[in-house]
Write a structure and sequence with these properties.
Largest sheet: 6 strands, mixed
Shape: elongated
Number of helices: 43
Strand content: 5-15%
Structural class: alpha+beta
Radius of gyration: 35 Å
Helix content: 40-55%
Strand order of the largest sheet: 3-7-8-12-14-13
């Protein structure tokens, strides 16, 4: 707002950082930036902290950093407090003297880039925060716990590692007689490892290795590797004579590993392999690959070096296979959680990098962000405490650790934030400096598929060589794989050998000899050419699948945007693509999605409601269905529990008294009350209410804001309740439910004029009999004083009906709005007589019905207080024409039976002896398949947010499930769900406290071995499926 405004603002800011939460995005951004500088949290940015962070941006010289700190530290105290920081920013001093690149770099620091963060970074952060919440909630001091773990780890290291012979004696290796799999020789030998490799070659995972052998291999390998390579850096030479074969990412693709081992020979001390990380995740055979490598290493520790990649990481493993993970699910299917924990222990032993002949640096990811980094410094990192540091760790060593396994080279000079959300991008100048400072020739790394479709890529003038060994990556990339061979005879020259591995079932041919091998080489090349078309098709299919999952993940944001912007639900293709790029993913071809999905209507537009409703997350679980019914039912009961009279109910939603409400008005009013819904659930519910109305307005060509008749809105809300209630267990006697249906149908077919006139006549008789003339005057007086602004209930009854008809929504889904679930099978009512005797189409039947219900309620309300007494309700029903002709269970509806119906209507609400308008609507409003979509939408939103948080829920449950049973106590699951809620921003909260209670109650089961109820969380989280409703609920993807 100008220099004076900024300066005035800066003078008002106190020195200490405010304790209240930020009120604006700008203030939040400034607070986040201050916290990034203030690492130790003492409220001041010390010079060392300032220096460290500015260096990490990669665009500032030491001299420039020193000058900037001096400008910020106005009182020369040696630290920058909150007031000085704000003044430095707001007055422009921070960027006035910076170069263009430095200013841009600094601006990136202040921006929020959550949308660009990788899935892993987000999920890992949430998971770790949930764990911290659980530690605190279970009264475990996190600091004391970590200190205890460090002491235990130190004690373990001080002990001499157990020799393999003693270790073997302590493991029971006996197997069942009916086991027909591979018998591993103990102790492991090179011959035994080769035999194991051939076993996997012939059987894949069809005949899995016995769990006891897996236990032996993981435990023995961990001990042996830690003894042979205790430091994070392996200093090795090339065998003389001999060679080192560097293998890049294999990602669970067993055919690639088998092909490489066959082509280059058995691992030995003179034929040494260096596996450069990422042996697991994405592919289906991570376990088998590790078993082969572990067996060879145990047999000969000099035959192999194994590096850690970013996927030898618990948080990555916990992601779905399509999201980049999958190893934990693989191990759980094959051997269980205890086995997975042994693999994690092995991961912690893997090296971080190697230096070959003191001249070549080999690392999985890339170079660190810290300038002047030495190999000796890297060797001081404690690499065996965790599989990977926290993605947002501030500790220098943790950042270096992270960069070594996550970073990527770029063709632009300098250091930049990585698109992955973790690590950095480093340019040729960084590679050159690192090599010069450490007297290295070049760097070998892996971590990414070369963008040229080959198995390797050379960058930075040949000083950075990428080796990637997983050919046809994930089955749809069509790339070659490659290895790099360093032969001692020709060192430092190297050879890169590419391959394209055939499917596992064809691999036995590869293990032929002589001419068959040459023939096979030709067939592999031919196979790649022939498979290109199929690979391309599969890649396109997976890309469409990723777009669908992206839409599902971002549904809360998409619905919120629709509500906030009051968007019409039919939008132009350009607007749709812009929306998807902004809120979902800008890197995928939305044009292709529009084409393949066939979502254009006859006018060439896209119906947002149809797109957002087309793909749904479903859970194939009866217990979960019961939970959804309870959750949706509670929403309606919360509104009904307000217990307002008729005029207050209408006035609450229709504040300007025009008889209509728009989407923002409804969203605002619903947000005023504790309805048991999160913010995103309210957005979803509101948007669904108005979706059909928007379509009707679009069909008419209207451009004004979409509005709904207020009485029709209340009717739709009632349908939501009845739909959810019908799905659950009804405690109403069958004859009463039939009676309500019969009365409802009678009201529908009776013309409003006849219905209300008879009712009013009866009301006059009742008033004369019970209250006299003075009571009648009192009733009229009350109605006049209680009227809404600008509306006289007595004079404007007919106008109210006419206005409701004029505001009629044209909804095809309301065609059967009067068809009760208790009605017999047959054609639905298509036309209803209006009060003037003219035909009323079923399109406008809904608002006609709700207008009739208002008039009927008023006529029954003989006291005029806006609330029906039970006696008034019975008297009103007794006066409905044709009521005495109805029979239920072969018996007429006598006054006593009507009283029983009235008591149920009241007891099903609040049971206070009165019936408000919402209870009245609920008693007679029928539910149809169309409006049932509203309840389904709300239920699907709840399912979607659980789906989005499934990783954090699973990680939280595993905190309690130390034995890996897949089950936790019900109260533990409740703590996990509250923990996930606590770490999400308020608009992203997945469930309310009431919904959490409903869910836990629905999922819990009694266990004969446990005193308390338990929950099978593993089965629950494996029940997710994605359905395509436009294809009759076809399953798009399972998440088992």
């Amino acid at each position: 707002r100008g220099a004076q405004g900024r300066q005035a603002f800066a003078t008002l800011v106190p020195g200490a950082m405010p304790s209240n939460p930020p009120v604006s995005e700008s203030e939040k951004a400034l607070m986040d930036a201050f916290k990034k500088f203030d690492v130790n949290g003492d409220g001041k940015i010390q010079e060392g902290e300032f220096n460290k962070l500015m260096k990490s941006l990669g665009s500032f010289s030491q001299k420039e950093i020193k000058r900037l700190f001096s400008e910020a530290d106005t009182d020369k105290s040696g630290g920058v407090d909150w007031r000085e920081f704000i003044k430095w920013i707001c007055t422009g001093a921070a960027t006035n003297t910076m170069s263009a690149s430095s200013a841009a770099s600094f601006a990136r620091l202040l921006q929020h880039e959550h949308r660009d963060e990788a899935i892993f970074a987000e999920q890992a952060l949430v998971s770790k925060q949930v764990t911290a919440y659980l530690k605190e909630s279970t009264n475990i001091d996190a600091d004391e716990n970590e200190e205890r773990k460090r002491k235990q780890l130190k004690m373990k290291r001080q002990k001499n590692p157990q020799d393999l012979e003693a270790l073997t004696k302590n493991i029971d290796m006996s197997v069942d007689d009916n086991y027909d799999g591979f018998i591993l020789p103990i102790p492991a030998t090179t011959e035994g490892a080769t035999a194991l490799m051939r076993h996997y070659l012939m059987n894949g995972s069809n005949k899995p290795l016995h769990a006891k052998f897996v236990n032996y291999l993981t435990t023995a390998f961990t001990q042996a590797y830690k003894a042979r390579h205790p430091k994070p850096v392996v200093v090795a030479g090339t065998p003389k004579p001999g060679r080192v074969i560097v293998v890049g990412d294999t990602h669970g693709q067993l055919p690639d590993v088998l092909h490489i081992l066959n082509q280059f020979g058995t691992p030995t001390a003179s034929n040494r392999y260096l596996f450069n990380g990422d042996m697991v995740d994405r592919g289906a055979y991570g376990v088998e690959i590790l078993m082969i490598l572990f067996a060879y290493f145990i047999a000969d520790p000099e035959c192999m070096i194994i590096h850690r990649g970013n996927h030898e990481n618990e948080d990555m493993n916990a992601l779905d296979c399509d999201s980049g993970g999958g190893f934990i699910d693989e191990v759980m299917r094959k051997y269980g959680l205890v086995a997975y924990r042994r693999f994690v222990t092995a991961f912690k032993a893997f090296s971080l990098c190697s230096v070959i002949e003191k001249e070549i640096f080999v690392v999985h990811g890339g170079l660190p962000r810290v300038s002047g980094m030495s190999i000796d410094y890297i060797n001081t990192i404690d690499h065996s405490g965790v599989t990977a540091p926290h993605p947002q760790a501030a500790d220098i060593k943790d950042q270096v650790f992270t960069d070594l396994v996550w970073s990527d080279p770029t063709d632009t000079a300098g250091k930049y934030k990585s698109d992955r959300g973790i690590g950095i991008k480093f340019g040729h100048d960084i590679t050159t400096k690192f090599c010069m400072q450490n007297r290295l020739r070049f760097v070998i790394r892996s971590h990414q598929v070369p963008n040229n479709g080959r198995g390797y890529m050379k960058q930075h003038e040949g000083r950075c060589v990428t080796i990637f060994s997983a050919s046809n990556y994930c089955g749809d990339s069509g790339n070659y794989g490659a290895v790099l061979v360093l032969d001692s005879q020709y060192f430092p020259r190297y050879e890169i050998v590419e391959h394209y591995a055939p499917p596992l079932e064809e691999m036995p041919k590869v293990f032929g000899i002589g001419a068959e091998v040459e023939k096979e080489k030709v067939s592999i090349e031919q196979q790649k050419t022939e498979s290109d078309a199929a690979t391309s098709a599969k890649r396109a299919e997976r890309e469409l699948e990723r777009m669908i999952i992206g839409i599902i993940d971002k549904k809360p944001a998409l619905w919120a945007h629709v509500v906030d912007m009051s968007l019409r639900h039919a939008v132009e293709v350009t607007a749709f693509k812009e929306l998807m790029c902004d809120l979902v993913d800008s890197t995928v071809p939305w044009d292709e999605g529009v084409k393949q999905w066939g979502i254009l209507d006859s006018s060439g537009k896209i119906d947002l409601d149809k797109v957002l409703s087309r793909w749904v997350v479903h859970m194939d679980s009866e217990k979960y269905t019961n939970f959804l019914s309870s959750a949706v039912k509670s929403v309606y009961e919360a509104v009904m529990g307000l217990d307002m009279d008729l005029d207050k109910t209408l006035k609450m939603f229709d504040q300007d008294g025009d008889g209509t409400v728009d989407v923002k008005e409804v969203r605002q009013v619903l947000g005023m009350f504790d309805l048991g819904l999160t913010s995103t659930q309210l957005d979803r519910l509101t948007g669904k209410f108005f979706s059909e109305i928007a379509k009707g307005a679009a069909d008419k060509g209207g451009e004004s804001a979409v509005k709904m008749n207020v009485q029709d809105f209340l009717g739709r809300f009632t349908v939501v309740y009845n739909s959810s209630k019908a799905a659950g267990e009804s405690k109403i006697e069958p004859w009463i439910a039939q009676a309500l249906g019969a009365i409802g149908r009678l009201i529908i077919k009776t013309p409003a004029e006849d219905l209300v006139s008879e009712m009013e006549k009866a009301a006059v008789k009742i008033q004369k009999c019970f209250r006299g003339t003075s009571a009648r005057k009192e009733m009229v007086s009350k109605r006049k004083t209680a009227k809404p602004d600008g509306i006289d209930p007595e004079k404007d009854k007919e106008k109210e009906v006419e206005h409701a008809a004029s505001q009629a929504p044209h909804s095809r889904k309301s065609l059967q709005v009067f068809k009760s679930k208790t009605a017999p099978a047959g054609p639905s009512v298509s036309r209803v007589r209006s009060s003037q005797g003219e035909g009323l189409t079923a399109t406008s039947a809904s608002q006609h019905s709700t207008s009739k219900m208002v008039r009927l309620f008023r006529a029954m309300d003989s006291s005029g207080d806006g609330i029906l007494q039970v006696e008034e309700f019975v008297n009103g029903l007794d006066s409905v024409p044709g009521i005495h002709d109805l029979e239920v269970d072969g018996k007429p509806l006598t006054r006593d039976r009507l009283m029983a119906v009235a008591q149920v209507v009241d007891a099903d609400g609040n049971g206070n002896g009165t019936i408000n308008y919402m209870e009245f609507l609920k008693a007679f409003e029928s539910s149809d398949s169309g409006n049932g979509d509203i309840a389904n939408s709300l239920a699907e939103d709840i399912t979607t947010v659980l789906f989005r948080s499934r990783l954090a829920i699973r990680m939280g449950c595993r905190y309690f499930d130390e034995d890996g049973t897949g089950k936790v106590r019900a109260e533990e699951l409740e703590k996990v769900l509250h923990g996930v809620n606590s770490v999400l921003a308020r608009p992203q909260r997945m469930l309310t406290s009431a919904q959490i209670a409903f869910l836990v109650e629905a999922l819990k089961e009694e266990s004969p071995d446990e005193e308390e109820a338990i929950v099978d969380y593993d089965a629950f989280l494996r029940a997710f499926v994605i359905l395509d409703t436009a294809r009759d609920g076809a399953v798009i993807k399972h998440f088992t």
